[in-house]
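Could you help me review a protein record that somebody else here produced? What it holds is a sequence and that sequence's fold in token form. I have pasted the whole thing underneath without changing anything:
=====
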Amino acid sequence: MRILVMSDSHGDCYAAKSAVLSQSSAEIVVHCGDGADEAEEIRRAFPEKHVVSVRGNCDFCSSAPNCEVFTVEGKKIFVTHGHLYGVKGGLYTAVCAAREQGADILLFGHTHQPLATYDDGLYIMNPGSLRSYESTYGIIDITDKGVLTNIVKLK
């Protein structure tokens, strides 16, 4: 199962759609906030994709939740934008929240800095920003052999 993870598209629908088109095998698209309009556009343009999105600090009129928890292939995934957990000052609070939910994977945005790491049973990913000088997104592959995370530059 391939999951496309994006965040902080800040109105750039073209970049969000380009990321989805570049990862056509991804069955799930996760938007980690600051792109509520783009998440809705992806839902409309790619009805075959399961889209999960959360509200970011710049999604002023969004009714999306602040956090989402869902399970794929036996892996529990905790999604948040990160601003409510102070991720610009460190990951401790967000990691604690993910662990409290029993998550295997933590996905967040807000900092615009891509990150893919592993800490004591928890995969942690910030896909970076789709609207920046070096636009990036993330890929998660969940197989029977385990979890693989990658950060990809948008071309």
Summary: The helical segments are 13-22, 36-45, 92-100. The first strand starts at residue 2 and ends at 6.
